[in-house]
Amino acid sequence: MLNPLAYIATRWTPSPRTVRRAALAALIASVVIVVTGGAVRLTGSGLGCDTWPKCTDDSLITTQEQGFHGVIEFGNRMLTYVVSAAVGWFILAARSAKPWRRSLSRLGWTQFFIVLGNAVLGGITVRTGLNPYSVAGHFLLATALIAVTTVSWQRTREGDGDPRPRVPGPVRKLSWALTSVTLLLIAVGTVVTGSGPHAGDSSKVKRMAFDWETTAHVHAIAAWVVCALAVAMWLVLRVVDAPDDTRARARDLLIVLLAQGAIGYVQFFTQLPEVLVAAHMLGSCLVWIAVLRLALSLRERPADLPEVPDRQDQDQALAAA
Questions:
Q1: In Å, what is the CA distance from 242 to each residue of 163, 250, 303?
Q2: pTM of the entire structure?
């Protein structure tokens, strides 16, 4: 007896382009909900809906009494369903494609469980009055979703064969260092947010017990390390004559880092205007995507095709027959 996904797969065969578009839609949706989540915090709407899963104790949706903040918070909650729909589309497309690639289905279901977990963590965040550690975890889970959707998008354009390196081993190790420090940069960024002035609702919301300016300086140091590693990667890729698309990924990363760094310093010296903070959050997502795309471009996965016997084997088989 077929399950619903298998049943649909018997009646629909999406093209490879459709599968790629579904993966890209999930990636875009995962970035959009991060930015809108930032808008909730920056407008002080974090408790616009003061409970979860309902918006109030008596209403599933926002009420007139909750005003603008309720609309903003409830709207961000509704975007979770948009992300879920995008992820569901990818799961369905991956399952229905011919031939079925189990690796893509696993990535799709990983996205689903991250979205589910983050929805629950979002509810915990509301019920704990925007606890900054819960808020930080909420953002880091969103970062994990972006990572998985980025990998999924890349994998739709590859086969399922064993990965083959396109650059020497030391270059790949440099890429892992770049990826690790970027993840550290994002994690420190959540501490800056958790100890900074934008609490998400009011000045009474609990903040992390760290000096904001000190954590901001640590964040800046980590950013400079990421920039140094990115420049080193760009130079090394030219020295080893890496493929053109890989060098293009390194160039794109430098451009995104330059823009993100400029926004970061301007917002620091202008007392964190909301518009620039939102742009910085978008930049964080784009930096993470650029780092991952660069790392993924350092190897290739050909189609996992059956081996074709050579001519000698064929002649022996014919003689035996």
A1: 16, 11, 22
A2: 0.89
